[in-house]
Design goal:
Elements lengths: L1 H23 L30 H8 L3 H10 L2 H4 L5 E6 L1 H5 L5 H7 L1 H9 L2 E3 L4 H4 L4 E3 L5 E7 L2 E4 L2 E10 L2 E6 L7
Helix pairs in contact: 1-2, 1-3, 1-7, 3-6, 3-7
Length: about 180
């Protein structure tokens, strides 16, 4: 069953990205790997400290991806995103989920099919590091649709989301933290 594994991979990547964002922003320093300006500090995660953790582990421990982790669990994607991979996850933070209209997250948690489609739209097969992402104009997600990637003024965007932290590595892929939930067409 490839679809559950893909969804789990997407969720895991999203979770890892959130964790990395949370931890890296707490350092109050600018990373050379960052593709955008520094955001409000929250927590510090050293990429090397995550070498023995999956995308789901990293996201769960970050503390800034609680909504993403809950969504991954509700969609049944934990095993997939904890699998071998590799996966690249564009992980929205809790703040990104908070931007959605009131009641959206709650209704998605009750609609596994829609939730899975949204979560897998945040996952790309393979390990795509920031240096590779900025060379792309689009990429196909595990959900099946493409996301648009653009670089303007030194900032990277995936569809309408800003990439705020990059290259948070896990044993089964990499997380790039985004500030907006991506919604498939």
């Amino acid at each position: 069953m490839k679809q559950p594994k893909v969804i789990l991979a997407i969720v895991g990547v999203i979770v890892l990205m959130g964790i990395g964002y949370f931890m890296m922003n707490n350092q109050n320093t600018t990373s050379e790997q960052s593709m955008s300006e520094k955001t409000t500090p929250t927590a510090v995660i050293e990429p090397k400290a995550m070498n023995n953790k999956t995308i789901v582990d990293v996201a769960s421990e970050a503390g800034n991806f609680t909504t993403l982790v809950a969504a991954v669990k509700a969609a049944g994607l934990v095993d997939t995103l904890s699998g071998t991979g590799p996966f690249t996850v564009f992980a929205p933070t809790d703040e990104a989920f908070a931007k959605l209209p009131a009641g959206t997250v709650e209704s998605l948690l009750k609609d596994k099919e829609k939730l899975t489609a949204i979560l897998t739209y945040h996952v790309v097969s393979g390990k795509v590091m920031a240096a590779d992402v900025i060379k792309l104009h689009s990429t196909k997600t595990v959900q099946g649709q493409d996301v648009t990637i653009k670089v303007e003024g030194g900032k990277v965007m995936v569809n309408n989301a800003n990439v705020v932290k990059t290259d948070i590595e896990a044993t089964n892929g990499v997380i790039h933290v985004i500030d907006t939930v991506l919604l498939p067409k």
